[in-house]
Amino acid sequence: LLEEAAIFTSLEDALQDCHLALATTRRFGKYREDFLHPDQAADYLLPWTEKGRVALVFGREDKGLTTDELDLCQRLITIPTSDQLPSMNLAQSVVLCLYEISKVQAAAQLKPGGRKKLATNRVLESMYGHMRSTLCDIGFLDEQNPDHILRSLRRIFGRAGLNDREVRILRGLWSRLDWLERERRKGTEPQS
User: CATH number for the 2-107 domain, one of 3.90.1150.10, 3.40.50.720, 3.40.1280.10, 3.40.50.300?
Assistant: First the structure.
């Protein structure tokens, strides 16, 4: 198994062809409120495996995942623990999450078909870059801290499970906003 493992230099590269990525973290914050527990994550992700490639992302043993790495994932998983022992080691986290997935998988009677194929992380990250640029240009995002709102938008789109067509629609929206802003800056009245 290890001999066939692909090696990547960054998490972003590793997730390029994934359609859904769930990250484990114990870090709570102002913009991290939509956590799944491992059993909920298993219920959530299993149907998506028929739609495309799914990744479970675990952090480093000593410091977990960075904020930027968490941003690359559509959903977050947290493992409830006691206050006396607030975090688990990496192996414990992996075993617990995989156990919950195997339980759901064993109980599931999955019916193929009817599910949309999700956009890959490469497609999503490209859309997020376009969205960031557009929303900064039109003054929607605070130039000093655009990530404040972008993280919330990423979570919204992550929960939606966008397919390629939906991404193209959103990119069409960003492109239209780009055009309208260029026309506004020229001082002309845009034609509808």
Answer: 3.40.1280.10
Do β-strands 35-36 and 75-77 pair in parallel, antiparallel, or remain unpaired? parallel
Average pLDDT, the chain: 87
Count other C-beta atoms under 10 Å from residue 123's C-beta.
19
| Mean pLDDT calculated for residue range 55-70 | 92
- The answer to whether the Cα torsion of 117, 120, 123, 129 is positive or negative is positive
Amino acid (one-letter) located at 133: S
Statement: 121-186 belongs to CATH 1.10.10.10: no
Among 123, 28, 38, smallest CA distance to 80 is for: 38
Q: Shortest CA distance to 152 belongs to which of 163, 164, 140, 165?
A: 140
Least confident of 29-33, 86-90, 160-164: 29-33
